[in-house]
Here is the input.
Amino acid sequence: MTLSGACSVLGFQGFLSCGSLVHGVFERTGGVSCAPFDTLNVGFSTGDDLYAVTENRNRVLSRLDLPRALFLNQVHGSRVLVLPEDEKKDPGLFWKPGKPGPKVFATADAVVTKQRRLALVIQVADCQAVMLADPHKKVIANVHSGWRGSVQNIIGECVDVMTGRFGCDPGQILAGICPSLGPCCAEFIHYLKEIPPDLWKYKAQDNDCFDFWAVSVDQLLAKGLRPDHIENMNLCTRCSPKRFFSFRKAKKTGRFACAIGLC
Here is the structure.
């Protein structure tokens, strides 16, 4: 393993206005993994050295200054995991530095909670991670939405959970779209079979690339979020391989972390 420098982390301006939130999009530098996973790979399913991934996850949590994290077993589905504030969960579900890895793996592609001092982490390498927060109700969520997630509208499902289970007002929810495949690179040559007709309006006129950033924004707006509460980093992972992992660019690669937590 090779030791890299400090973790490089990006944030959202909208989220920064709320002092009770910790969040960060971690670029691929600052970890210990060797090529092709260099260096801050947090994905265990990539084929990377398990000890390197463990150290990388610990570094992410340390940078967030939170004592524990939840890493989902992401399967490109539409299940939203709910972690109520007053409900005890198996402690083996959470990642804690210096402790053995989680013994229980939560299979879901979104998670919502009011629990404090817990980082909700999405692992991506072209798919979108969409962070959601209601600073008034103190409710947060993190969503893994690739093209399959967009088709299933997992973002909308997650907003429904926030409003239905936690009483959130959609007009108060903040949303941040993390780096992912942009409209420049989200090409689907078999879109007639893969993408439903109601999403074809997001396809470019002169090629088979889709604007899934616009899809996500429209799905959030349809659930009642305010346009000025939605922030897109507008960073394409395939166009920035030195900053982010991209499966479309490299195939065999790592996963970078997008995390949010309540202080």
Summary: The chain has seven helices and eleven strands. Residues 9-262 form a domain with the CNF1/YfiH-like putative cysteine hydrolases fold (CATH 3.60.140.10). The chain has one domain: 9-262.
